[in-house]
Design goal:
Layout lengths: L1 H4 L2 H25 L4 H16 L2 H14 L9 H31 L8 H11 L4 H8 L3 H24 L4 H25 L7 H35 L2 H10 L5 H17 L5 H37 L7 H9 L2 H4 L3 H7 L4 H25 L1 H26 L10 H21 L1
Helix pairs in contact: 2-8, 2-12, 3-9, 3-11, 4-5, 4-10, 4-12, 5-6, 5-10, 6-9, 8-9, 10-17, 10-18, 11-14, 12-13, 12-16, 13-14, 13-19, 14-18, 16-18, 17-18
């Protein structure tokens, strides 16, 4: 019965959920120990910098991998060839960071040193390519194995990161634990390559991957970089303490975002087959409907309890994080709109890049304006507005370019009532209650 219930979508969603819970539990443990907010801020800065310099090309190349993996011509060499390509990007990024890290300190970290530079470089070289492991399971439809891998790997990461802190060692040892856990994932990825005889490299595949992936890398850089630009606005204007407050509220990928992205990524290989378009549109609509019935009520509950719960779950020093967290909960309004799944799966990536550029300009502009008016919550509000604008633009492009109505792949009525209700609850909790 368990195997029947776990398909590619639910397995990948469970993986992302376990990842999110691990990050959340790590933050809770940190806040409950004797660590200062400055020390927590250093750890968060370490994670933040690793993501800032790799997220765009990693996510862009991964998104290109999924539809290509469904092509008979490329399927045999897809995984290992992608691993080699991503490893080259990782090594190049690490070398670049080594030489330009003074720029991060001087311009983006308000004069502070990059936390544990050598560990950061090791993390980039081994930790970033190890992200391919979950896609290995996804592409090969080893759904149950993906869930087991998530439980085991993130349990190991959690223990290696929090045990040093619990034992009163410095935050540096938590970073050591994080890096070591990423090296273990890297080793396991090689075990899978050998075990499944998946060591096949193709220059032809790499060319196809880059041809499809470069627009997605550019789109991800333009769209996703807004979150990191927001972080750099905080690090350049505020100290490590304040950055910790911001990061505890504005997690890079909130639960709603993780599950929505998991649905998107899991359906991309299917959308690579044009002959099954109507079936895939219906599956996307059903998947979004199930997601909305779960995520909108959960988001409403979290909105209502965030302010009283945050000081208890973390500590009173993170009270302000609750408002930022509540604003990020509203991102579900844009995340469950998935026109990008259709455009990406059908390899119509040009409009995604244009939308991302517009979103970046709007996000950064509003962030710089709103931070002066509302402080840290203003940055989060700018992100909500810009992300919603991006999705509305893509909905129009799918209608105009592909002649596909929103109602064909999205439960419009449910979406409208859920969104209005969630925004009303947000207004009540922030300005009335």
């Amino acid at each position: 019965m368990i195997r029947k219930r776990i398909n590619s979508v639910s397995a990948f969603q469970l993986y992302q959920l376990i990842r999110y819970v691990t990050l959340g539990m790590t933050g809770i443990v940190f806040a409950k120990t004797s660590l200062t907010r400055e020390a927590i801020g250093d750890y968060e800065t370490f994670i933040f910098l690793a993501g800032a310099v790799s997220f765009f090309w990693l996510n862009g190349l991964m998104k290109a991998l999924l539809p290509l993996s469904s092509d008979q011509e490329h399927s045999r060499a897809a995984i290992f060839s992608s691993f080699v390509l991503i490893s080259v990007f990782s090594l190049s990024t690490a070398i670049l960071i080594y030489f330009i890290h003074p720029a991060f300190s001087g311009f983006l970290l308000d004069g502070r040193d990059v936390p544990e530079l050598r560990l950061l470089i090791i993390y980039l070289i081994f930790g970033v390519p190890s992200n391919l492991a979950e896609y290995f399971y996804l592409i090969r439809k080893k759904n149950k194995s993906l869930v087991v891998y998530a439980v085991v790997s993130f349990s190991i990461q959690f223990l290696l990161v929090v045990l040093p802190v619990i034992l009163s060692y410095s935050i540096r040892w938590a970073m050591y634990g994080l890096v070591f856990s990423s090296v273990l994932r890297y080793v396991w990825l090689w075990v899978m390559f050998i075990r499944f005889s998946a060591i096949h490299f193709s220059f032809g595949y790499v060319k196809a991957h880059l041809r499809l992936g470069i627009p997605l890398v550019a789109a991800t850089l333009l769209s996703g970089s807004a979150q990191f630009v927001d972080g750099f606005i905080v690090t350049s204007r505020f100290d490590s303490d304040t950055f910790a407050v911001f990061r505890y509220g504005a997690r890079e990928l909130p639960l709603a975002t993780l599950l929505a992205n998991a649905l998107n990524n899991a359906l991309l290989p299917a959308f690579g087959k044009r002959e099954d378009l109507q079936t895939n549109l219906a599956e996307l609509k059903n998947g979004v409907t199930r997601l909305m019935h779960f995520l909108f009520p959960m988001s409403a509950i979290l909105l209502l309890i965030a302010h009283p719960v945050f000081p208890i779950v973390f500590n009173p020093a993170f009270t302000e994080s609750a408002t930022i967290f509540n604003i990020y909960l509203l991102l579900i309004v844009s995340r469950v709109l998935m026109p990008q799944t259709i455009l990406n799966g059908l390899r119509q990536t040009g409009q995604i890049m244009v939308a991302s550029l517009l979103e970046l300009i709007l996000n950064v502009s509003l962030s710089l304006l709103f931070v002066r008016i509302w402080g840290l919550p203003g940055i989060a509000l700018a992100t909500f507005i810009a992300y919603l604008f991006e999705k509305m633009y893509l909905v129009l492009m799918v209608r105009w370019k592909l002649k596909i109505h929103l109602s064909e792949y999205h439960p419009v009525n449910h979406y409208f009532y859920y969104s209005i209700g969630l925004i009303a609850i947000f207004i009540f909790t922030e300005f009335v209650f």
